[in-house]
Amino acid sequence: MDSLITAAARALATGDALGALKRVALRDDAPALALRGIAMAQLGDLVRAKALLKSAARAFGPREAMARARCVVAEAEIALVSRDLTWPTKALEAARKVLEAHGDRVNAAHARNVELRRLVLVGRLDEAERALETLDPTPLPPAARAAHELVVAGIAIRRLQTKAARAALDRARQAAREAGMPVLTAEVENAARVLSAPVARLISRWRESPLLLEEVEELLGSGTLVVDACRHVVRDDQLSVSLATRPVLFTLARTLAEAWPADVARGTLIARAFRGKHADESHRARLRVEIGRLRAELRALAEVSATKRGFALSPRRAGETAVLAPLVEGQHGAVLAFLADGEAWSSSALAIALGASPRTVQRALDSLAEEGKVQSFGRGRARRWMSPPLPGFPTILLLPGPLPSD
Amino acid sequence: MKKSAATIIREYGPFPGAERVNGVTFDGEHVWFASGDRLNALDPASGEVVRSIEVASHAGTAFDGEFLYQIAEDVIHKIDPKTGRIVSTIPAPGNGGDSGLAWAEGSLWVGQHRGRRIHQIDPETGKILRTIESNRVVTGVTWVDGQLWHGTWEGDDSDVRRIDPETGEVLERLDMPEGTGVSGLESDGGDCFFCGGGGSGKIRAVRRPGVGPGPAKRE
C-alpha cells in the first residue's frame, strides 16, 4: 500500500469519504479505484460506486485475488441495498470462498451476511436459516455483528417468533452501540418498530381490531380456528389447509368465519363470493356446489352446516373462530408487502422476490399506481417503484475494506 | 539468484493504538515505526514502545543519523527526533504512490509502490537523481553493507530481495511465510532486518543471511 492510499483509507475508516476522494480522485490504479468506489457508495452514488468497483476488480493483478474478492463483495452489497436482485450470486459465493481461503474471516463473514440478507429479502427463509447455522458471529467486529443480528431478527419476525426476534434485536442494538455508528442504531430501531406496530387485523363476530406481531403469534398458538387472509390458509394449532389456489372457497370460508358463531345468509355469501348482486336460482345451485367443496376441504378442521337462511361454520376442536386479515386489503397485498420496506424496487426484482411473472407484477404495479398506493420514478430498465416507508428489511451499507496487502 | 525461506527471529506487537505499520527505521537504539498519525520508538530488547511523535505517517520511514524522514500523503517530512518538529518538507517522487524510504550515501531512496521502481533523490530538494526499475511492487527499501534490499508484497506473496543497484537485477530473495507481508524494511546494520507487517500491526525481525549467526552487534 502506498502513501496516499494509506491516507485515503484512514480517512474512509473514520467516515471522511470526501477526504478519501480528495486524495485519490485523479488516480486510476486498482486500489484507488476501489477506494473511490467505496467512498462514492458511502456518499450515496450507488451507480457510480458500482462502476468504479467493477473496474477496480478488473484492475487488480492475478496475485491480488483477495483485493478483487473484496470489491466483488462490496458490489454485491450495493446491489442488495439498491434492490438489484438480478446480481449474480455465484460471484459473491466465489468471492466469499476466496476470502475464507485467505483467512480474511471478517470480510468472509460480511459476504455471508450479504448472501443471507438477500435470501431473507426474497423469502427463502429455510435456506437462510441453514446458512445461519454455519456462521458464528462472536468474533466479528461490532458493526458486522449488528448486521448479522438484524438478519436473525428478520427471519424470526417472518417466522412469527417474537421472543427470538426481540432477543436478536437487543443483541443488534448492543452491537450497534459498540460500533458507535448512529446509522446502524437507527437501522436497528427501525427494524424493531415492527414489533410495536400493528401488522394485521383480527376480525371476529363482524368486529375488527389491530394486532401486534406478538398477538398474531399468540392467536396462532391459541387453538383458535383462524382463517388467515394473509397467507390464504385455514388453520388451528394442529392443522393447516391451504386455499391459496381456490379464491372462491377462501372467500366463503372467510365470510363464514367473520360471522361466527352466527350464520350467514345465502345472499350475502353469493354477493361476496360470486360478486353477484341478486341471488337467482343458478347462483343458489352454484353456492351449494362450492359449499360442498369447502366442506370437503375443511373436513378435518370444521363443519359447514346449512341453516334456515344460509350456512354456518363450527370448528371441530377449537373453541373460537377468527379471521386474520392484512392491514391493507386487495389483490396486490404481496406486492405492497415487499414495497413496504421503503426501498426502490425494479419490477423485475419484485418478480424474482414474489416468484411471479414480470407481466403479472407489472399489472399489479400499474393498478396500485392508479390507486395512488405506489409511485415510480426513472424510465425503462432504470424504473423503480416505491411505497410510503414502513418498517422492514435492513438497508445498511457496511462495505468491506477494499485494500490489498493487509 | 539465491533463494531461501526467511527466518523470523522475533515478532513485536501489535501495539495498542497502532492499527498498521506503514514504515520502519532504526536509529541504532530504537526501531521507529509509522502507524498513520504517529511515529513510535520501539525498544527492540524489551519490545516496549518508549516514545511517540505526533506526525502524519502513511508510508516509509528513514533515519540519516540525525533526522527522521517520513512519507505523508505526497510529501516527505524531515523531523527532528529530539523535539518532534518538522524541520522541512520536500515533494515525494511518486506523487503519493510512494511506499518505502531509506537513507544511504547522502541520498534518500524512495520506493514507488505500483510503479515498481526505486528513486534516488536529493534530500534537500526532492530532485530525482536516478531511478532503478524492479519487477515487483516496492513496499520498503534499505541499504546495508553496500547492498540494496527491498520488500515486495502482492496478495499472498511477499519477500525481501537484494537487487543490483545498477541494473535492478534480483540477486537474492528471502521468501516470507504465507500470510506474512512486508510493508516496511530496515536493517539494523548487522544480521537483522526489521520488517513492518502492514495491517497485522506487527514488526518482525528477519535474519539477514551471509552475516554469520548470533545477535547483531551493537556499537
Automatic annotation (TrEMBL), chain A:
It comes from the Bacteria. This is Helix-turn-helix domain-containing protein. It comes from Rhizobium indicum. The lineage of its organism: Bacteria, Pseudomonadati, Pseudomonadota, Alphaproteobacteria, Hyphomicrobiales.
From TrEMBL, chain B:
Pfam families: PQQ_2. InterPro entries: PQQ_rpt_dom (IPR002372), Quino_amine_DH_bsu (IPR011044), WD40/YVTN_repeat-like_dom_sf (IPR015943). Residues 73-184 form the Pyrrolo-quinoline quinone repeat domain. This is PQQ-binding-like beta-propeller repeat protein. It comes from Rhizobium indicum.
